Amino acid sequence: MSSFLRAYLVDPAELRARVGSGDDGAVDEALAYFGPSLDRSDEHFADEIAQGAPTALEALRAVVHGGPFSGNEDHAFQYGYAYRRLCWLVGQPLEVDSFGPFRGNWLEVVDDGLKAYGITAVSVADFQYGGGLPTGLPFCAVPSCGTWSAGDCGQALDRFDRAGREGRAPVPEREVAEAVAEVVGWLRIARSRKGTDIVGFVS
């Protein structure tokens, strides 16, 4: 089975202003932005919804209002996708050409490529095995979620640039080198937007 990584540059304050805010305006904004895609999502998950999972809109409303959430952990995926939609709404989607579809331990392979440059402050595998959704939202395995703080992004980019100045230029396999270059591109965008985090999802 193949997986996809999607990543977003997000202002954490703007995201916090929506998640758990109780602001119906945030729900209306998301509904206006995503519109028909919510209906398509409901069609895709029609069987799960028939078994009691929330619709895409109901999940969005619950994430914005901080509940109520279904007590069935099999339904938690809808809240994960709702959170991803809010990240997309307030943030900037990043290019993820090297990360979808992928199979197996590809994220760990890319992390090894990052470590070759001394980069350990961030890990793409953390998007699959990291801290998950914000506190207060139900845990879901898919989509998985992780966050790179602005500080960690800055530290990672500094280490990459230092490796270049020191002449430490490993030559990993082409696919890994391309993925590392893509990650470094994310880090440079994050630095240009001071105070922004990178939030990634794997599904």
Topology:
Elements: E1 5-10, H1 12-16, H2 24-34, H3 36-44, H4 46-50, H5 56-65, H6 77-90, E2 92-93, H7 106-115, H8 126-129, E3 144-148, H9 150-165, H10 174-192, E4 197-202
Antiparallel strand pairs: 1-2, 1-4, 3-4
Your description of this structure?
With 203 residues, the protein is of the alpha+beta class. The chain has one domain. It has helices at residues 12-16, 24-34, 36-44, 46-50, 56-65, 77-90, 106-115, 126-129, 150-165, 174-192; strands spanning 5-10, 92-93, 144-148, 197-202. The chain has a 4-stranded antiparallel sheet, with helices on both faces. Helix 7 crosses helix 10 (174-192) and helix 9 (150-165) crosses helix 10 (174-192).
Tag the structure with descriptive keywords.
single chain; 203 residues; alpha+beta
Strand content: 5-15%
Distance between the termini: 10 Å
- Provide the structure class: alpha+beta
- Total number of distinct structural domains: 1
Order of secondary-structure elements: EHHHHHHEHHEHHE
Count of individual beta strands: 4
Helical residues, percent: 40-55%
Radius of gyration, in Å, reads 18 Å
Strand order of the largest sheet: 2-1-4-3
What is the overall pLDDT average? 94
What is the makeup of the main sheet?
4 strands, antiparallel
What count of helical segments does DSSP give?
10
Shape: globular
- Poorly predicted runs are none
Domain DUF7691: 1-203
InterPro entries: DUF7691
Protein name: DUF7691 domain-containing protein
Pfam families: DUF7691 (PF24740)
